[in-house]
Automatic annotation (TrEMBL):
InterPro entries, alphabetized: FAD-bd_oxidored_4_C (IPR004113), FAD-bd_PCMH (IPR016166), FAD-bd_PCMH-like_sf (IPR036318), FAD-bd_PCMH_sub2 (IPR016169), FAD-linked_Oxase-like_C (IPR016164), FAD-linked_OxidoTrans_Type4 (IPR051914), Oxid_FAD_bind_N (IPR006094), Vanillyl_alc_oxidase_C-sub2 (IPR016171)
The keyword Zinc is assigned to this record: no
Keyword Oxidoreductase carried by entry: yes
Main EC class the enzyme belongs to: oxidoreductase
Keywords, sorted A to Z: FAD, Flavoprotein, Oxidoreductase
SUPFAM superfamilies: FAD-binding/transporter-associated domain-like (SSF56176), FAD-linked oxidases, C-terminal domain (SSF55103)
Protein name from the UniProt record: D-lactate dehydrogenase (Cytochrome)
Cofactor requirements of the protein: FAD
Chain ranges of the FAD-binding PCMH-type domain: 51-229
Length: 498
């Protein structure tokens, strides 16, 4: 796994493997426990296939009660647990542990309730993102967050990573569209947070859970808000002579007070790869392409398309084409949605990064990434959520060539450090996982990280849920609570101690 370091497997757990598997079969009978190497092989990695690790065993529960019993058993026996959805994560967040239970939630695949009057859907975590929209489309509704992997990724995984998508600029990330969850703690306790109401009183625990990457509990039910499909939606293709010019156009559109339903950007490499893959009519004589979608009442949409065109033309736009039908709008997006698999046709391997920057920094960051590409001798394609500055550089390499994976990792680290340098963050929607874990110190100091770990300790005091992820060094909760003693003297000696 290149230079990646994971927690050392505990010998006593490995020695008890046969008994652990037998005990788990009693909880999840039938085909609910997988323990052979061949059958466990599909679970050895998530979307970041450069990192692989076989789990101790795989458990596939089908009820919340089974999840509760598995977690209670793991807690009582000190066994780590790694929750897993569809395995589409691009940060190594579902990478198994050699001494840990991989808890697959794929059997939780039913929609439990659709309430059009209240505009909510209650779904199990294994329901796909697109599955929610499909279930409500006949009444003119949809679920707004739409990651490119929406045909496969699950709503439970979306909650874990706080996933976004092309429409998150206007309609928000997962955290803005989830109203409640049912979650099982490591002790086996089943709790509910939020519900079908708009807001909850008290502390915003739901905001803490969305994006927690499986470190706090296992989600077994999700309540989301659904939206009425806009009256009109049209997409505009805008070609530019440089990525810098396209980046400047993004900033200018937002500065003009226009909030598109989605605004995506692709550079020359990605335009050609995507067009060859889906053949939707992208212009091939430009260096950068913007896809800007405007939605709302028809008169408003038509007006905004004119305004966006004026802004683009003022910044050197070379080609401008607005969709004239729903089929054409969908076709415009098809290339963007297929961008990641399209790269598989031009490179044997690639790493997909996920940093977020202030929009005004787009021209500078794109220019510096080109310099990095020359430095490392690796191609890098750019396709990203331009409206909110969420970059997805695709670093191409060949894992069969010695040292290329390491170069790609170093290139990716430099990109993420650049994002932090210009005032951005390490991740926008893919999560930290193991990919960005060791870069957390570039964004947070020791005090920041310690406070984040204390939150984990409140839910999982023995650090059994997804250990080795997010935090560069996972302290034991007892270590975090220790008092600092200097020169043999306690701080504030006048305060009574208990």
């Amino acid at each position: 796994m290149a230079g990646l370091v994971m927690p050392e497997p505990k010998a006593d757990i490995l020695a008890r493997r046969a008994q652990i598997i037998a005990d788990l079969r009693a909880i999840v009978p039938g085909e609910g426990v997988i323990d052979t190497e061949t059958e466990m092989r599909p679970f050895e990695s998530d979307g970041v296939t450069a990192y692989r690790q076989m789990p101790l065993t795989v458990v596939l529960p089908s009820t919340t009660e089974q999840v509760s019993q598995v977690l209670a058993y793991a807690h009582a026996n000190g066994i780590p647990v790694v929750p897993r959805g569809a395995g589409t994560s691009l940060s190594g967040g579902a990478l198994p542990l050699a001494d840990g239970i991989l808890l697959g939630m794929g059997k939780f695949n039913r929609i439990l309730d659709i309430d059009f009057a209240n505009r909510t859907v209650v779904a199990q975590p294994g329901v796909t993102n697109l599955g929610i929209t499909t279930a409500v489309a006949h009444e003119g509704f949809y679920y707004a967050p739409d990651p490119s992997s929406q045909i496969a990724c699950t709503i439970g995984g979306n909650v874990g990573e706080n996933s976004g998508g092309v429409h998150c600029l206007k309609y928000g990330l997962t955290t803005n569209n989830v109203l409640g969850v049912e979650m099982v703690l490591i002790t086996g306790e089943i709790i509910r947070i939020g519900g079908q109401h708009l807001d909850s009183g008290g502390l915003d625990l739901l905001g803490l859970i969305v994006g927690s990457e499986g470190l706090l509990g296992v989600v077994t039910e999700v309540t989301v808000r659904i939206l009425k499909k806009p009256e009109t939606a049209r997409a505009v293709l805008m070609g530019f002579p440089s990525s810098e010019a396209a980046g400047a156009c993004v900033a200018a559109i937002i500065a003009a007070g226009i909030i598109p339903g989605g605004m995506e950007m692709m550079d020359r490499m990605m335009i050609h790869a995507s067009e060859a893959f889906v053949n939707v009519g992208y212009p091939l004589d430009v260096e950068a392409l913007l896809i800007v979608e405007l939605d709302g009442p028809e008169a408003e949409v038509n007006h905004l398309i004119e305004r966006v065109g004026e802004i683009g033309n003022g910044l050197g736009c070379l080609t401008l084409r607005a969709s004239t039908s729903e089929e054409e709008r969908i076709a415009f997006w098809a290339g963007r949605k297929a961008a990641f698999p399209a790269v598989g046709r031009i490179s044997p391997d690639y790493l997909c990064m996920d940093g977020t920057i202030p929009r005004k920094a787009l021209p500078e960051v794109l220019s510096r990434m080109e310099q990095m590409s020359e430095k490392y001798g690796l191609r890098c394609g750019n396709v990203f959520h331009a409206g909110d500055g969420n970059l997805h550089p695709l670093i191409c390499y060949d894992a069969n060539k010695p040292g290329e994976l390491e170069k790609a990792e170093a290139f990716g680290a430099d990109i993420l450090l650049l994002c932090v340098e210009v005032g951005g963050v390490l991740t926008g929607e893919h999560g930290v996982g193991v990919e960005k874990r060791d870069l957390m110190g570039s964004m947070f100091d020791e005090t920041d990280l310690a406070h984040q770990q204390r939150l984990k300790c409140a839910f999982d005091p023995n650090s059994l849920l997804n250990p080795g992820k997010v935090f560069p060094q996972l302290h034991r909760c007892a270590e975090l609570g220790r008092m600092h003693v200097s020169g043999g003297k306690l701080p504030f000696p006048d305060i009574p101690r208990f």
